[in-house]
Amino acid sequence: MQTGSQNGVQNGCPINKEGEEFNPYRNWRRPDLPSRCTYGRSKDSPHSNKSCPKPVRPKILNSVLDNIAGTPMIRLNNIGKSEGLKCEILAKCEFFQPGGSLKDRIALRMIEDAEEKGFIKPGATIIEPSSGNTGIGVAMVCAVKGYRCIIVMPQRMSLEKVATMKALGAEIYRTANGIPFDQPESHVGVARRLMEEIPNSFLLDQYRNPSNPLAHYDGTAEEILDACDNKLDMVVIGTGTGGTLTGVARKIKERCPNCKIVAVDPEGSLIAEPAELNQKGKKFEVEGIGKDFVPTACDRQFVDKWYKAADKESFQMARRIVREEGLLVGGSSGTALHYGIQAMKDFGLKEGQRCVVIFVDSIRNYMTRFLNDEWMGERGYLEDEEEEPSK
Ligand SMILES: Cc1ncc(COP(=O)(O)O)c(C=O)c1O
User: Fold this and answer.
1) Is the residue at 111 inside a domain?
2) How high is the pLDDT of residue 386?
């Protein structure tokens, strides 16, 4: 995504100010520089697009990495109806990925793009700051390929994610909650320090690595369009790094220019536009979405409307998706569907129209969180939840 002259990197010239070779994985750049993405298929694009057709799987796979992508699209049959909607609602079920989330796609793409360019070599240490799902994906790829893996994650993220990453052999560093991203003690700052201290280490940096949105431009979006035969009226996407939004929205607007792109950002996060929607400093508990900066990987130009999301509505809807649709999703899927339903009503989607909502991760990450009545009750998230019918 960087094509200009930041840090001395000139267009097409990988030499930095000091005359050393520029290595995007070892030369630090802020993760909140404006998006300057030109990765459409123009001849000036600095990026290599890949054809990623929906995989046709052989009976025996060579490794778990061959099971990444190709997730199912599943119709929601109950929740839309009970909300009075007549349009079709489809869930892109990324929680069926082998690592449990859509982030498996970007973990594999970021590592393989860097390997292809010769930046990552055998014996390397891969470092990544993550709210957990990218960490799990990166740890899984490193386990298969034999790289040492270090994940830096804020304290507030669930212990279930830490347990999974440790089982995959990753070393985990936890950072205190609420530290601004540009401070050395933040998860971004600690990852950067480790990269500078550890020889032969590489910081993938999903916040600015173009392979993040490209995985969705070439993969996720193509799969959505294929499942819908290029006929869709709305897509709803939660934002963290903004990589999913950037890649999916760009491809879908190219192919279906009338499709509405709805983006959902938690209260307290600073990604939504216009900026007046955002409330700096407000805490939020849904994991994976929301940031205290706008990541470089996030290109907001294709968004038709932003919604700000509350935790309670998100977790209650995630429980409804499990209970009423039988889909074992995580909290941010509840966020996307709750505010997606609002958007379908606001835009007046009718019978015969179709909305796709992306369900990013799985229930496995949150056994002690929104699945737990005590955890929900202590925070007031159970209030107004529909009572179970008495037996
Ligand atoms: C559970 C969950 N939902 C949504 C997202 C947002 O995806 P993106 O980073 O592509 O914006 C993430 C990102 O980590 C996530 O973990």
Assistant:
1) no
2) 55
- The phi, psi pair for 21, rounded to 5°, reads -65, 135
pLDDT, averaged in runs of 10, over the chain (391 residues): 38 48 83 74 65 82 97 98 98 98 98 95 95 96 98 92 97 93 92 95 95 96 98 98 97 97 97 94 92 94 97 98 98 98 98 98 96 97 67 45
The pairing of beta strand 148-154 with beta strand 171-175: parallel
Cβ burial, residue 382 (10 Å; 0-12/13-18/19+): middle
Among 251, 244, 290, which residue's Cα sits nearest to residue 267?
Answer: 290
Query: Is 81 one of the catalytic residues?
Result: no
Q: What is the pLDDT, as a whole number, of residue 55? A: 76
Total count of domains within the chain = 1
- Strands, sheet with 234-238, edge to edge from the N-terminal-most edge strand: 73-75, 88-93, 354-359, 234-238, 260-266, 305-309
Tell me the CA–centroid distance for residue 240 and ligand 1, in Å. Answer: 5
In a domain, 45, yes or no: no
Q: For ligand 1, atom 15, which residue shows the shortest CA distance?
A: 288
Which residues form the domain of 314?
67-97+216-377
Q: Which residue among 103, 260, 308, 312 is the active-site one?
A: 103
Report the distance separating Cα 307 and Cα 288, nearest Å: 16
The residue whose CA is least distant from atom 7 of ligand 1 is 240
**What is the β-pairing status of strands 125-129 and 88-93?**
unpaired
pLDDT score of 222: 97
Tell me, using a 6 A CB cutoff, whether residue 314 lines ligand 1: no
CATH number at residue 308: 3.40.50.1100
Q: Is 294 within 8 Å of 32 (Cβ atoms)?
A: yes
What distance in angstroms lies between residue 166's CA and the mean position of ligand 1's atoms? Answer: 20
- Give the closest residue to 309 by CA, choosing from 276, 288, 336, 349: 336
